[in-house]
What does this fold into?
Amino acid sequence: MFWPIYGLTKKYTEKKLNISKLNLKQLYIKNIFKRSIHIFCIDVGNDNALNFEIFALLSPKYNLHRLGIFFTQTPRKADLLIVLGRPTEKMVPLMLEAINQMPEPFGVLLTENNDLGISFDNFDIPNVIGHIKGDVSRDEMLSYILAFMKGDEKK
Amino acid sequence: MKRLLGIISSDKTEKLLVSSGTFTGLVDLSQKKDFKYYDWLRDRDSVYTDSNITSEEVFNFRLGPLAGANQECSIYHLKTYGERMLAVNIDQTYKSRKIEDLMVGRSFDEAIPLAESVCSNFAFSHSVAFTQAIEEALGLELSGYSKLLRVIFLEIERIYNHIYVIAKLSISAAQKVYSSHLLYLFERCISLNSKYFNSTFLKKIKKVGEVKDFPKELFLNYLEELKKVVNEFKKIYNFSLDSRNYLDRLHNTGILTIEDFYNTGFDGPALKAMNYSLDIREFSKTTKNFKPILEEEGDSLARMIVRAKEVSQSLEIIEESIELFQETQPESPKSLKTSQKRDSGIGQSESASGTITYYVEIKDQKIEFVYISTPSTFLFRAIQKALVGQIFTDFPFTVDSFGAFFCDCAR
It folds into this structure.
């Protein structure tokens, strides 16, 4: 037999795993999107700490796909925009245009870990779900993302 | 072998900041003819222009500043007729934060966080180079105890940066299982930093004349956990070497020659991959028996191998240093003779991607002038050279293998 078809006929997983017998605690998540969310991250001039935190979030430790969190490469397909760092002068129009390109409904998470760059107070950014300052950790970013997914009030 | 690290234009005179391994200092402008990249380095804050090829078939493919392929905001202008890259111009100006200007007029303690913010993943290397320049200007010498701590933290920083670069390469090569393992180990490394040293990127540890002290037992516990990470890394790295699919993507990709070194002046693992080294640890008294890891091919694979071997080497250095550290007692920094005190100083440290150099002039306990020479400045110039002639598919394998960062380059 052609080997891929042979593999399909075996159905190893289904035989071994009887879902009805498993006592799984079902967690209800009130998700405003009723589906997984897609995130677009933009670096607007941070010192790489925030880029590294996002990179570390992709570690299997967090297993983001299990939570329905995916990263996308365009604002037009994103539900949440994470702005990494305060913007440099040249990045301001690009940041604002990225926000402009987001489809409704959307959220914006602002992060900054130092005083370099232009303060976010100078811009009227819509739908800000959180503004993390100081030593921004990936755990904190994840907690904002999960709160956003659940539809919680912004912190 | 000597490198031009920067051009210092303070007090209306221009001097060259030159390094040759054993010597680092200012030399007269008449030596500029020895360095082919003098003109480019003088204008280092402008767009890195390689060539402006114009032809009917050639078009400019712009990648960035907000592109998924670029983690940082920057633009690659790839001149191409469709498949091969004929010339590459790099615009790093989007990331410029003018840190050198911001440092002027600040006290030393205020300026250290700025030095750390040049590039957070090299935060400790930057703070070491900066404070070393200040210490030289003030006529201070670190105690043996602090020097050991400095070595330990520099090697810790090197380990997680190398794992990061190799993880990036494995992601580019679509090695899903391998990259997941590496991502886990990378995350583990920076988690250990937070757990033991209260800073993910080893910030706020180096100060002028001292290194923040931690209990000796803490280092022993840390070492045990780090050994597990490095052993796991070695195991999966050796597995990866069996994958021809993976290695073929890196082999013969982004080859650099010694001519490229003379034209651009890069160092770090990129230079070691060509069988040359200007690693300052070789000439340091604290790391006496250090021998740089060298490879011969000069391609992405050689750069990756150098980094992977350096992970093990760094662990050995940490082990030796922690052993010595257990027997050493804390001391105050030694003050040198008054005659040795100057109003300027040069500090250097070996980061994961090359040598970081600071030239600092001080007046009344404040910064009067600072010049920062970072490895990424030169590495992006090398990337420009390495990309020419490559096909698009090889773009991530070439760029990621250098471990260059735009925030480090644009400052």
